[in-house]
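Why should sequence recovery work at all? Because a backbone constrains its sequence more than one might expect. Tight turns favour small or flexible residues, buried strands favour hydrophobic ones, and helices have their own preferences. The token representation captures these environments compactly. In the example below, the structure is given first.
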């Protein structure tokens, strides 16, 4: 189904963001989420979530190459692969797109890092809305949101009630905790805010 015309304000924002967020390098080892600190701050502020949360999720998702050509080849081999610097699957993207009226397509995440980061921040906002106000004390709210980003909303809510995460979710959580300090340093180096209330 064809998309409707994108409002001029949104077109302008996306063009400016795309220019500010360069394409990830072809060599996997040359990619660093720190390159997108300013875009992370903008996307997090628009969504009303913690920039530190978004940046730490980007660090967690930096385990694979994010160059558009490499992602296209990866998708040829694995059609349901996730796209973009924030590794988003099609079903998640479509849910966020419908909820927030986003322009663009899932494939655009591959070619537009700023759009991928904005979409990830909005997804984290949606997860935050569905997270109960009270949860087990062994996790911070940001840790539960990161688990939700990785394992899905239903699992996040179960973890919040005290259901133990499986091995993959536990590994994601360990990496999230390990990357937190590095993510904060990236934001500090860029002059952006390190955190907001979600902590």
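From this structural description, the recovered sequence reads:
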């Amino acid at each position: 189904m064809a998309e409707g015309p994108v409002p001029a304000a949104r077109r302008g924002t996306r063009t400016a963001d795309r220019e500010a967020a360069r394409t990830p390098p072809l060599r996997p080892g040359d990619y660093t989420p720190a390159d997108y600190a300013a875009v992370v701050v903008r996307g997090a502020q628009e969504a009303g979530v913690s920039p530190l949360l978004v940046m730490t999720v980007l660090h967690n998702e930096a385990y694979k190459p994010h160059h558009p050509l490499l992602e296209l080849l990866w998708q040829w081999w694995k059609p349901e692969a996730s796209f973009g610097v924030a590794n988003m699957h099609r079903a998640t993207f479509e849910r966020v797109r419908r909820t927030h009226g986003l322009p663009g397509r899932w494939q655009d995440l591959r070619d537009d890092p700023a759009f991928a980061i904005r979409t990830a921040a909005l997804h984290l906002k949606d997860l935050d809305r569905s997270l109960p106000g009270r949860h087990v004390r062994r996790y911070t709210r940001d840790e539960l949101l990161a688990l939700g980003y990785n394992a899905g909303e239903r699992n996040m809510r179960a973890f919040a009630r005290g259901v133990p995460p499986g091995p993959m979710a536990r590994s994601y959580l360990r990496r999230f905790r390990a990357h937190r300090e590095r993510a904060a340093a990236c934001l500090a180096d860029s002059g952006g805010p390190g955190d907001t209330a979600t902590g």
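A few observations help interpret the result. The chain is about 60% helix and 0% strand.
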